[in-house]
Amino acid sequence: MLDSPFAAEELSDVDGAVIVASPDGSAGPKSGISLASLPCIVIAVDRPDTANPTWADLIPEAPVASVDDLLGAIERHPVAATSLALLLRSTQPSLGAALVAESAVFSLLQAGPEFRMWRTNHPVPDPVTEEGPAVLIERDGDSLHIVLHRPQVRNALNRAMRDDLLNALALAAADASVTEVVLRGDGSSFSSGGDLNEFGSFVNPASAHLVRLATSIGRAIHALGDRLTVRVHGPCAGSGVELPAFANRVIARRDFTATLPEVALGLIPGAGGTASITARIGRQRTALLAVSGARIDAPTALEWGLVNALED
Amino acid sequence: MGGKVELKPGTRWASQVCDTEVVVVRAAGQAVSLECGGQPMVAVGEPPAPGLELDPAFSGGSLIGKRFTEPDLGLELLVTKAGAGNLAVDGAALALKDAKPLPSSD
User: How would you label B49-72 residue by residue, b for 16+ Cβ within 10 Å and e otherwise?
Assistant: First the structure.
């Protein structure tokens, strides 16, 4: 299909089209068409082990996700999956540009049919009153420990935690005498990702785009450079995976696992993961995780480069 | 020492009578006397003057990560090191910032 002079027409299915490339991986575009703007997802199947086709959006990889896993996930949420593929195909010139591009797509999907369907099917429970700060800051001389502190919800990232975390990171950035910063989470996991009870609480998608960029935790983590180490543990999801990936050094406990569940909500990773995770494991494995929603374990995360080291 | 100073954003100040340190987030519109524990603060790195003592009237303590403001002056400080004294400008204790959170983007 990629060879056809009508490829652009064939691939422009607004519900999200899927192409499975030929077994030998030779089905790359030959007719000079650019896939960059075509709303489709290109999957390479049965490729030779040595081949790494740059034109593929997705390369199935055992045991993470088979081609059938991917096809099923795309069929359930074609708009989100295809939007993600389009975004990941574009190379952004800077971290800032990547954050802007991701946020714009995320906001579009907030207004889309798949997210609306998910929220309808998952009503928000009554809020529970919480006591105490969402983030703890502990200073020991020139070391600063920033601790996510909503263990009862596995450190789900809500607005209070977002603002407290930004404040703590700003403190570290502003005080040059802080030579070592450690970010970690209390309880059974570093973070289970965005607090789903707040999903859909944006005022409107356009304003949410600006709010998201104004409150980028990933940008603040990245700015700390070599001063920051993130220590992750337990089952992490979404922003609980995306945000550590912004740090220069991530150390995972052996019980760490990672998943990107957003596509199943009709969304894409929205905490900067399409920039931070892509920088660590490449765009095809990022797409593999995000489209499939598969969970990888700590050794796989280390092998892929999602984390820098394991500890007991 | 002890005179009024310009508090520029990003500059760091230390208490002379406790461990408190702050960084200036937003400058005051005018030169002020910044105090902690009832005594003037000095630029971080400057040695404290000998013989100063914590004024019990300003001993409520400063918690790390907390922001304090003087709304009329536009001044905002962030505590980067906790200490026993509390912050004041020109003899008046500073109030904890009434944080106005941004809305959700999720």
Answer: eeeeebbeebeeebebbbbbbbee
